[in-house]
Automatic annotation (TrEMBL):
UniProt source species: Sesamum angolense
UniProt keyword terms in alphabetical order: Glycoprotein, Methyltransferase, Signal-anchor, Transferase, Transmembrane
Protein name as catalogued: Methyltransferase type 11 domain-containing protein
Family: Belongs to the methyltransferase superfamily.
GO-annotated cellular components: endomembrane system; membrane
Transmembrane parts of this sequence: none
Gene Ontology terms describing biological process: methylation
Residue ranges, annotated region (Disordered): 1-34
Length: 412
């Protein structure tokens, strides 16, 4: 396990660090000229066929009513396109009523219309006269590990279920569904026009002590196995709901891996720095933020409700939860934080490239001279030496504390 306390250099010093190669990845080129030619020929053939049927219908001498509306053919289990198409037949003034258009011609024409629509959607757009610039390599990498604005549509069943609600009424009780979408990268979720559900009891004021027992009936727990906070507190002591256990966290020194809050402030003071604003990534029930609040430091906590009401617990303690997944950009402006802490949520299970983007996003929100606390990070010893230590080194931060020891607990 590793506990790393890293100090970010000022902007001027950081700019002198060697820059990473930005041309290691190139946008792949896909050539499919033969397919384009086939699609083009199909479109030409179908357009000719459609014009021929149109001409037959317009010039027929058997008394067909030119103003008849074309009804869609009966469904035969095939995929039906619902794109509206303009009528092909002109309605002359004062045309006498006549027999309807034969069904087989209606079916043929509708089939041609659907086929043309389908082939048109498959045909790639025409290239502009001037070649578009190649996408930056980092954009290609990031869209691969965290698709931009596409993860929602990549989960249509869940998305349709989430948006299937009655507008201007009470929202469905579907918090787990929202959690599933967010964890699949659909974040931020689409907005809905319904009224959110609220618990039966609302706290009248912020708690004086953020380590007092969590009041009951202040959160909707119907989706969880435990229906009370005291039930969660009795499950596992490391879940964060037992305030008797949480009250001593981040205060004691049990091994070199621990960085008590008192030592953290001593390090900042010796560097003539200050800690006022911080972010705790994967902060559970917000205990780090609670301890820092007692030191007059404001800490935002990102957390997800993975099996327990972590967001509700953070809020009930008078703290600010951010319901944000790890793969998304930190919802904080550039260079405004004094400290960013990563807890157990940030560990070896995250793909290396995703972790690299996360670390540089941490750098984005930290001010010059700010601190990055990678708290109890765990991995294999070989991976620590060959992968993660060089990865952390890319930030160019000064190590103010670096401790390594064997992992002895079973968590993670």
């Amino acid at each position: 396990m590793v506990t790393a306390g890293l100090s970010k250099f000022t902007s001027r010093i950081r700019q002198n660090q060697p820059r990473l190669a930005e041309q290691q990845f190139q946008k792949p080129s896909f050539k499919n000229n033969s397919k384009d030619r086939v699609l083009s020929e199909e479109l030409k053939y179908l357009n000719r066929a459609g014009q021929k049927i149109k001409k037959i219908l317009e010039t027929d001498n058997n008394g067909f009513h030119h103003g008849s509306k074309l009804a869609p053919p009966p469904s035969h289990g095939c995929h039906q396109h619902s794109l509206p198409l303009p009528p092909l037949l002109h309605h002359p003034i004062q045309t006498p009523a006549a027999a309807p258009v034969p069904d087989h011609l209606i079916h043929q024409l509708s089939t041609i219309r659907a086929t043309i629509n389908h082939l048109t959607s498959l045909q790639p757009p025409r290239k502009p006269s001037t070649a578009a610039p190649a996408a930056p390599s980092d954009l290609l990498i990031y869209t691969h590990i965290s698709p931009i604005a596409s993860s929602c549509k990549d989960n249509p069943a869940l998305l349709h279920q989430y948006m299937n609600y009655t507008p201007f009424a009470l929202c469905p009780n579907d918090s787990p569904l929202a959690e599933d979408l967010i964890l699949r990268g659909c974040h931020p979720l689409p907005r809905r026009r319904c009224f959110s559900r609220t618990p039966s009891t609302t706290p009248t004021s912020l708690p004086i002590d953020p380590f007092s027992p969590l009041p009951e009936k202040t959160a909707i727990l119907s989706h969880h196995s435990c229906k009370t906070f005291s039930c969660f507190a009795g499950l596992k002591s490391d879940m964060g709901f037992d305030m008797k256990v949480e009250k001593s966290r981040f205060l004691t020194y049990k091994s070199d891996l621990d960085l008590p809050i008192s030592q953290l402030f001593e390090l900042a003071k010796s560097a003539k720095s200050v800690i006022r604003l911080a972010l705790d990534i994967g902060g559970g029930t917000g205990t780090f933020a609670a301890q820092m609040k007692l030191q007059n430091v404001t800490v935002l906590t990102t957390t997800m409700n993975l099996g327990a009401p972590y967001n509700e617990a953070v809020a009930i303690r008078g703290l600010v939860p951010l319901h944000a997944p790890l793969q998304q950009r930190l919802p904080v402006f550039d260079g405004v934080l004094d400290l960013v802490r990563c807890g157990h949520a940030v560990n070896r299970w995250i793909p290396v490239t995703s972790m690299e983007f996360l670390f540089f996003d941490v750098d984005r929100v930290l001010r010059g001279g700010g601190y990055f606390l990678l708290d109890h990070f765990f991995s294999k010893r070989t991976d620590l030496d060959k992968v993660f230590t060089p990865l952390i080194g890319k930030l160019g931060y000064k190590k103010v504390k670096w401790a390594v020891a064997n992992k002895t607990d079973s968590s993670g």
